[in-house]
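Example 9 (inverse folding). The structure is encoded as follows.
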């Protein structure tokens, strides 16, 4: 029984994630490469930010 319900749990999880992101069925979803490239850009930006001296409040 658990084997049969596994796909439905996966579908339900994806639907809840789409809802969380505010996506509808007709919305375009980025492919894995696009997400990977975006993550790489965020990582590089964070590395650049951490190499800067700390700012002083003023």
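The amino acid assigned to each position is listed next.
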């Amino acid at each position: 029984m658990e084997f049969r319900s596994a796909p439905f749990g996966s579908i339900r999880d994806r639907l809840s994630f789409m809802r969380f992101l505010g996506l509808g069925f007709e919305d375009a979803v980025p492919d894995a490469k696009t997400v990977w490239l975006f993550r790489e850009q965020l990582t590089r930006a964070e590395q650049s930010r951490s190499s800067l001296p700390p700012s002083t409040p003023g």
